[in-house]
Design a protein that fits this description.
Blueprint (H helix, E strand, L loop, with lengths): L1 H45 L5 E11 L2 E13 L3 E8 L7 E5 L2 E5 L7 E3 L4 E3 L2 E2 H5 L7 E11 L2 E10 L8 E7 L5 E7 L5 E13 L2 E11 L6 E11 L9 H7 L1
Antiparallel strand pairs: 1-2, 1-15, 2-3, 3-4, 4-5, 5-6, 7-8, 9-10, 10-11, 11-12, 12-13, 13-14, 14-15
Length: about 260
């Protein structure tokens, strides 16, 4: 009898302690799911999930230096396959970046073998390779909701995005997303040493492929005042991009 009584007491005590922990775990799961849903919806505002093509012009300015203009064509499918073609300057036309998964190579007409690159390496101005080749955050970062901010009368989710591993473009990103429609607003990018590298603003929302999307991204250097790159997106259209497009052999047809 005593043994059975003690067993019942242990069960009751266990349930009393487990209840709060289960509630906390459930709340944590809900927060994580909400953060991921916000991030996914914001990514869908920026770029379509289907295969697409878009033109990008980048103007870079810095104090005491002449402005630099470059143009690229991006072919992308999901968040794992991307080709970035150099359009201008003409002297570099034919150069291409190929991303498969998180592996990135540059192909140059004058070099027989592709060269492996890192997503965090600088492409031009304030723009890293990964800013063009892997622009969506979902899949590369684990999001959580830090707080909500009110800016200009609008409420924004403030997400902290932590890199899933060291191969992604940035170690950590603080990301503002408008609550009412999931529009991206701004971002702060941090290095592995937690140094603020640069900030970005999403501007000039226009209808492309049936959604209001940002067509201008302003990236400012956080360490060197006055240095910035402005990315202008245009001509976005859906394209059928089978997996064979994202291979070295197929790249030769795009030149």
């Amino acid at each position: 009898m005593l043994k059975k009584y003690l067993q019942r007491v242990l069960i009751v005590v266990s349930l009393c302690f487990a209840g709060p922990f289960c509630h906390v775990a459930g709340a944590a799961d809900d927060d994580e799911n909400l953060a991921r849903s916000i991030l996914e919806k914001s990514d869908q505002i920026r770029f379509p999930a289907e295969g697409f093509q878009v033109e990008v012009k980048i103007n870079t300015t810095a104090p005491g230096q002449p402005p630099e203009d470059r143009s690229y064509r991006i072919l992308s499918k999901g968040n794992a396959n991307t080709i970035v073609q150099v359009v201008e300057p003409v002297s570099e036309r034919g150069q291409m970046l190929l991303m498969k998964g998180r592996d990135l190579w540059v192909f140059m007409p004058s070099v027989s073998q592709p060269i492996r690159l890192g997503l965090a390496q600088r492409l031009t101005g304030q723009v890293a390779n990964g800013d063009l080749a892997r622009a969506n955050f979902t899949g590369d970062y684990t999001p959580k909701i830090l707080r909500t901010d009110t800016i200009g009368g609008e409420k924004y989710y403030v997400l902290e995005l932590n890199a899933v591993d060291r191969s992604v473009t940035y170690h950590r990103v603080i990301y503002w997303v408008r609550q009412s429609n999931f529009w991206p607003h701004r971002a702060e990018y941090y290095s592995l040493s937690e140094r603020l590298l640069k900030t970005a603003r999403y501007e000039n929302f226009q209808t492309m492929l049936g959604k209001q999307r940002p067509t201008r991204l302003v990236m400012e250097d956080a360490l060197r005042k006055g240095e910035e790159s402005v990315l202008e997106y245009s001509g976005m259209k859906l394209r059928d991009l089978p997996d064979r497009v994202f291979t070295k052999d197929y790249l030769q047809r795009l030149e």
